[in-house]
């Protein structure tokens, strides 16, 4: 995602390199007689089109009355902004900005956090899904590491093959990661997910859990919470949303007798970083299950993604824990805020009555009491 001058993306004020350069060239080659009336009226932006009409530069241009001064301003702006582009701010990120995820996307936040911890010595095997389609539209990519797009159903098996190939070349130090959403990893891709864990390949399997098939229209998945409304389990007179309870993927993963399983949340990046580092220190199959709120599918304000993620943890709707050699340990003791705070912020639960939420609260409390004695 690079402009013709080799700069990444757009300037921080929204002006692109291309628009400035094309304006500069157009002004230099223009007939002064045709240009002067626009300069005198202060509406130069209309002469060059609408691309600069709402930019700060357009305001500065409107105050100038001579072509030479205008050219000098544009040239100076281009030179000044060469080191002040958006890409510079994120130049060390291995998931580049400018991708097409929705505002507030939990999956992209998760991917950015993951790559910052993993580093460059990695191969990513990415299942079809939100994260894949929004970061790799040909001929562009946001991935600054070796990355493979695979189908919904086989991310973990492809990662297993990559692991074997690298080991055969003596490149055992390269980290291999299989990543997908709850659909691509826990439903459609569950067979290869399970197989890779059962074979105990030295890979890290990651599920970014946005709790439905968000890429294809918010259909329910095995990881969708009980009574959440989706397009295939719509709440109404005859239904209160999804009938089944959320699939317990971490426990299922641990049942494969792998050395490390953990849950994480984009709301707690330090906890996520620590768990990734621990996973990398362990040989064998590792599984990381990351809670990744989706503003579109869950129907909440995109500015509240991190707040929603934290409320899930603090209300016990999402537990942060580790399972090492079969032993489960809570990573963070929740504050115990009412789950109503978490649920009422999302329209997928808006149909629930106070009684429904109270029953939900009771079940959540019982699970925490049973598993963590809290």
Topology diagram in text:
Elements: H1 17-29, H2 32-41, H3 44-48, H4 56-62, H5 67-81, H6 86-89, H7 106-118, E1 122-127, H8 130-135, E2 147-150, H9 155-168, E3 175-181, H10 182-187, H11 190-198, E4 204-209, H12 249-254, E5 260-265, H13 269-280, E6 286-291, H14 295-298, H15 305-314, E7 321-324, E8 327-330, H16 339-344, H17 354-372
Parallel strand pairs: 1-2, 1-3, 3-4, 4-6, 5-6
Antiparallel strand pairs: 5-7, 7-8
Brief summary:
By secondary structure, the protein is α/β, with parallel strands linked by helices. The chain has 17 helices and eight strands. It starts with 16 loop residues before the first helix and ends with a helix.
Q: What CATH architecture label of the largest domain applies?
A: 3-Layer(aba) Sandwich
From the N-terminal CA to the C-terminal CA, the straight-line distance is 49 Å
Mean pLDDT: 88
- Note the total helix count: 17
Count every beta strand, where a strand is a DSSP E run of 2 or more residues: 8
CATH class of the largest domain: Alpha Beta
Explain the overall architecture.
By secondary structure, the protein is α/β, with parallel strands linked by helices. The protein folds into 2 domains: 17-87, no CATH class; 92-372, Thiamin diphosphate (ThDP)-binding fold, Pyr/PP domains (Rossmann fold, 3-Layer(aba) Sandwich). The chain has helices at residues 17-29, 32-41, 44-48, 56-62, 67-81, 86-89, 106-118, 130-135, 155-168, 182-187, 190-198, 249-254, 269-280, 295-298, 305-314, 339-344, 354-372; strands spanning 122-127, 147-150, 175-181, 204-209, 260-265, 286-291, 321-324, 327-330. It has an 8-stranded mixed beta sheet, sandwiched between helices. A hairpin with a 2-residue loop joins strand 7 (321-324) and strand 8 (327-330). The longest helix has 19 residues, at 354-372. The relative contact order is 0.09. Mean pLDDT is 88; it is low at 1-14.
